[in-house]
Amino acid sequence: MNITLETAADKLVKEIFGVKAGETVILTADDDSDMSVVQAVKDSAKRAGAHAMVISVPTPGGVGKAADPDLPVDALSAALLCADVWIEFNHQWLLYSTPFERAEAENKKMRYMCLVDFNPELMIRTIGNVETEQLKRFMLEITARTKNAKNMRVTTPAGCDVSFEIDPGHYTACDCGNATVPGIHMLTGQINVVPRFGSINGVIVFDGSVTPPFGTTPDAPIRLTIENSKIVKIEGGSDAAVFEKHLKSFEDEGMFKLAHIAYGFNPGAILTGNIVEDERVWGSTEWGIGYVSPFDAPPHGQDAKSHCDGICLNSSVWLDGVQIMDEGKMVDPYLKELAAFRE
């Protein structure tokens, strides 16, 4: 099938979000967003009979709460409280910002998705070309196994070796192409886990992109030594020093705390420097640092001034001592069978 931007937008609006006639769909963007994508999704929402609205702001100087000083916080919050669907195409994401927190806390009908820096090629590659139903069966099985495990270990050829406890009270999000129910949704192809706070120990090595501050792969792998879920040492090349300086610039202890880990499972994702796509490169794991939403880790989450993410390529994963993935490929027989469409 010839997948175009228009058909990919229709898949997002109609299949993934299940937008209905009469619903209010708000699309947010900033000065660095690709407006051809925004326009295509707006047109698709209109064809679905929805009321589509685009809100564009000047590009903030930071992401999450660090974007707040550059946002019309009250006006944007008020609009989002009326949304049935909010899709953000911002370059500097509003996820975890004050308008995001207000909307998530007060608008119980809203379905939200963060599609940072989307361009037409990315839209087609990671949404239009993905066989959602096949991927969904595979991802739901891994999600169930992860939620039922007590411990998880991850290694990579680059030197990552980290273990932690899984907290059943924290939300395990399976973004497998279903954003038809209220809540926080992300691009298809990611399973997000918030470990038990204080339980993460070992070494994490970012050999994929790190965002912010780079948005690219660092000049040498960045090695983080983790004790009780906190970064105690950062090593690597010159970019490692830049990364450490970035974390210290917030003058916030929370920016040295690990937030979450995610499996990457989007068949079309490639390493491009766009964190939303990079987090979904097949067989990778991604670590978030800093802020955790109260919705992901009730009742209080983990407070921090901002959030950043780094990618660990070709990951091996053990759940309660049983290996399910080896350097990005399934080794469990049933998971291997479910992933046959990709592997």
Q: Kindly report the average pLDDT value.
A: 95
Shape: globular
Report Rg: 19 Å
Strand content: 25-35%
Overall domain count: 2
Q: What is the ordering of alpha helices and beta strands?
A: HEHEHEHEHHEEEEEEEEEHEHEEEEEH
Which class best fits the helix and strand makeup?
alpha+beta
Trace the largest sheet across and list its strands.
13-12-10-6-5-17-18-19
Unreliable runs: none
The percent of residues in helical segments reads 25-40%
> What is the tally of beta strands?
19
Largest sheet: 8 strands, antiparallel
Model description:
The protein contains nine helices and 19 strands. With 343 residues, the protein is α+β, with helices and mostly antiparallel strands. The protein has two domains: 123 residues, Thermophilic metalloprotease (M29) (Thermophilic metalloprotease-like); 208 residues, no CATH class. β12 and β13 form a beta hairpin. The protein is globular, with a radius of gyration of 19 Å. The two termini are 21 Å apart. The relative contact order is 0.13. It comes from Blautia aquisgranensis. This is Aminopeptidase. Keywords: Aminopeptidase, Hydrolase, Metal-binding, Protease.
Short descriptors:
343 residues; globular; eight-stranded antiparallel sheet; six-stranded antiparallel sheet; alpha+beta; Thermophilic metalloprotease-like; 29% strand; single chain; 26% helix
Could you give a quick summary of the protein structure above?
Keywords: Aminopeptidase, Hydrolase, Metal-binding, Protease. The protein has 343 residues and is of the alpha+beta class. The chain has helices at residues 5-16, 35-47, 73-80, 98-106, 120-128, 132-148, 238-248, 275-278, 333-338; strands spanning 24-30, 51-57, 85-88, 111-114, 151-155, 161-165, 173-175, 183-186, 190-193, 201-206, 210-211, 222-227, 230-235, 258-264, 285-292, 302-312, 316-319, 322-326, 329-330.
